[in-house]
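Hi R.,

As promised on Friday, here is the backbone we talked about, encoded as structure tokens. Could you run it through your design pipeline when you get a chance and send me back a sequence?
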């Protein structure tokens, strides 16, 4: 396994797990906020989870962009350069 594959696999797993946690938090937040619980504090907790999930989605998008940039730079640095020209002596 080369370094590019390792970086790409790490980025893919981190982003997938992050989006899954965002979706889970968002769904739980809406379920708590929309539930017929007569306690107002529970609804505020649901609203807080929704807001945190939205902020999390924003930072996941920013982080994904940064991860892509790291992968791009690593792929550019890992390309093999051509051999230098060999001088021909007369």
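Update: got your reply. Pasting your designed sequence below so it's all in one thread:
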């Amino acid at each position: 396994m080369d370094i590019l594959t390792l970086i790409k696999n790490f980025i893919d797993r981190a982003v997938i797990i992050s989006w899954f946690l965002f979706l889970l938090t968002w769904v739980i937040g809406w379920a708590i906020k929309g539930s017929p619980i007569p306690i107002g504090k529970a609804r505020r907790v649901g609203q807080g989870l929704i807001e945190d999930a939205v902020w999390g989605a924003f930072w996941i998008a920013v982080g994904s962009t940064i991860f892509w940039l790291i992968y791009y730079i690593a792929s550019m640095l890992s390309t093999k350069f051509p051999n230098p020209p060999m001088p021909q002596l007369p």
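One thing I noticed while checking it: The chain has one domain: 3-78.

Thanks again,
M.
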